[in-house]
Amino acid sequence: MAEFKKALNHEKIIFYYLSIFCKNKYLFFFFLTKLLLMKKFKNLLIVTALIDLLALIPLILVSFNPDMMEELVFSQMPGINEVGKEAITLIHIVFITIAISMLVALGVAMNIKVAESAKSAALILFIIHIGWVLPDWIFLLTGEIHPPIPVMILNLVAALSLGYAWKNGEL
User: Can you tell me whether residue 147 is helix, strand or coil?
Assistant: First the structure.
């Protein structure tokens, strides 16, 4: 129980830094060094799960609130018809399902007790997260529609923490 409280306190500190890292680049680098000092698989997976949950909340809000969907998504696509709107809504629901399955996979990976298995799980989750993050960065570079940059940075931090867990994680 003491380990859980310590990990939870550590996560609160990390999310405090996450909330203000866009305002100050020194705090951002401080946050990254704190993340790199963490080596326990469970802590790294908890950080990743919390970041994934934070990234999932706006997707859920937009998908189930038609006014938000109209303002934030459809307003970027002038001339979209009803069939296109239904397809975009369906795609958002598919993304929600994928994100929830990633959270479940992270939860299962937290309970792994063998170091080699934990590293394999971190590698597989890292690959899945890179597949989730990479299109947003490609769209940003090509000038197409992409999520807000702070959300993209959060998702990238989650993916990189899994890569770090794969290479340097300890039980």
Answer: coil
What would you report as the CA-atom Rg of the chain, rounded to the nearest whole angstrom?
Answer: 17
Q: Label residue 79 left, alpha or beta by phi (over 0 means left) and psi (-120 to 50 means alpha).
A: left
Nearest alpha carbon to residue 163 among 132, 137, 116, 128:
128
Walk along the chain (171 residues) in steps of 10 and give the mean pLDDT of each run: 44 49 59 64 85 84 81 77 85 89 91 90 92 90 83 87 86 78
> What secondary structure letter does DSSP report for 77?
S
- Identity (one letter) of the amino acid at 91? I
Q: Are 51 and 157 in contact (CB under 8 A)?
A: yes
